[in-house]
Task: structure prediction
Amino acid sequence: MEHLSFNNILYVSDGKILRADIVVENGYIAKIDHKEEIPSSEVIVSSLDKGCGLDILLPGIIDDHVHTREPGLTHKGDLSTETHAAAAGGVTSIMDMPNVVPQTTTLEALADRQRLGREHAFVNYAFHFGATNSNASLLPQLDPTSVPAVKLFMGSSTGGMLVDHGEALEAVFRLSPLPIMVHCEDSSIIAENMRRAQALYGDDPSVGHHPEIRSREACLASSRLAVELARKTGARLHIAHVTTKEELEAHSQPLLGEGSSDRLPSSMVSPPQGGAGGGLTTLEACVPHLLFCDEDYATLGTRIKCNPAVKTRADRDALRQALTDGRINIVATDHAPHLLSEKEGGCKRAASGMPMVQFSLVAMLGLVEEDVLSLPRLVELMCHNPARLFQIRDRGFIREGMKADLALIHRQAWTMTGKDIVSRCGWSPLEGRTFQWQVKKTFCNGRLIYNKGVFADGNSHAQALKFRDASSSLIL
Result:
């Protein structure tokens, strides 16, 4: 393992920006020699006043919502290409979704994906297990130290994984020993909205109608049912990619505010027998819904078509506000690469999803520049809280004894073009956008894996994520 030292470096962790000397040995942060704390409001201002660049060390980003497309859909991307893209964006850990081919809905398919992770992943990895109408009996057999969550497509079919039978839904909530990560959209409402839109606009309505079809009512109806089931069964619920102000108002339970170092609620640390938590609900926002609104369909078209749909400016602004008041607990990407040829058409024909993992950090740093949130709060949402909520062992913070997963960012303006894109699909809805920050270097388990556009050879530095160790230093 490499020996690393960062001398007189600014770093962000635990709600603070500090200057320190940091030593990394054998893949872990061995020593931090603190020098001073610097007010968050002064960091960027001072760099602008001096007219020079600025380097800041962050914990590596942890993205709990990624589609690498392997196995079965590798013409769009695979574990190697998409985790290289992650590394280029300062993302050191990803949790991959189960709607691949074959779906990750059997123990055998899960074991095969974990093997693929060992062989091909360039950053740390884990795989969510997919729920179906008939596999709830498998959930108690999952290893809670190696699987982050059960992914449930509730009320909206994605890759044939719709769980819509009442008894099957309740069984998933009752039997899962893990958090249940839910995609909430009501399929009956969507189907009726599509029927009406097709009657008015033809078989394949233009993408501007996507938020009318994948409507706010569909999201709210499904998420209300999920919360009701979680309360009934004691399940630990995590609602993915929230898109509406109504969901924020109905379901948010502020847990960890800016700079918080409070212990997690006991229901998140020690699940009661027969349930996955105390009925606690947490919310994830995804970067596309924080950047775009329905006005952007006019210029970006199906490039920003995703499920749930990008909705109104008011919804986007409500999500942004919720980043700072604690109602949103995690920011992720729902990184979902498709070929541009698959994005042709309208609401019916064009594929839903967009690549985002490589540019999530620089995009969120743009919101820091706009004073939407502070830099320490960004780190809470993208590093600390994913580690806390999934109880990831020894990652997500810059502390002595933690794994040395790190991202060195540099303040220097640049404009993104197609040649910057690492994902196999080769496009981004952010092409042509100017960012004020860039990811300069990425370190994974103490190894420099990305350095100003150059990747390290091999993937021996990547490790499988480990979860839910009661002795883990992540339980504050």
